[in-house]
Specification:
- By secondary structure, this protein is mainly alpha-helical.
- The protein is globular, with a radius of gyration of 25 Å.
Amino acid sequence: MLKYRSAGRGLRRVSAALLALGIAVLFVAPSAADDGASELLRDGEYLLRAGGCVSCHTGREDDAPFLAGGRAIESPVGTFYGPNITPDPETGIGRWSQRDFERALQHGRSPAGHHYYPAFPYTTYARMRPDDVAALWAYLRTVEPVQRENRPHDLDWFARFRPGLAVWKFLHFRPAVFEPDADASDEWNRGAYLSSALAHCAECHSPRTRTGGIKPALRYAGARMAGGDVAPNITPDQETGIGSWSGRHLMRYLDLGMDPQGDFAGGPMGDVINEGTSFLTDADRRALAVYFRSLEPIRHEVPPAD
């Protein structure tokens, strides 16, 4: 009898402990899951800013709905208009799957398989790590849906032939995920990743060939943009680039838009700073500064406007 009662008390204690553990799991496990989901969404929102998405997919007007498209993007072949990337099922990307999103960023194709124009910088986003693509997708699913029809691009007649984009891709696009340089520091690799997989700095700051590809020998050496603005040489050349800028100068410019002479960025770069790089951490702005200051100096004057 004594053994039986002792075993019974032991069983009751075990049962009580299991019940308590079950209650704890009910209250603690969802909290941990919520923390994980919240971190994913925070990462996605940060990547949205780091990738410069806002400055193309949100209109310039003060009351423009967030990421609902409509902003004009000038190019040598006409004007593109940033599309609606809110999760509206009719006019945005609400019916897309995550696989559709991955294919858009990494292969430049729509859910229907059509080629995207490289005004959408998938040539850069193709280098994003898969977990970053997933985080960005998760965040975009939480954005307020906005029903707003996309504005058709206004392009020269020859640029309207979308199948021709397959030729452009054959000449200029090789999808590949960013590979860190084992001989470089973590900070340098972070800056390289931010520039070449997210912020797509080379897309504006590099002159292009007649077929629209970046000139490899002049990457980051500056270019005149279609609207007439100059994307300056951001290699550390002392005369034509940013060779006289310190790391602090670069960090301040990416944060506040103020250059070493006290002038402030305007035009497209002003948008990039106000809606993108000013949201980065100091550590990431420092990583970008380290990366740009490490580039091979290229002496290149941006040619005057025609």
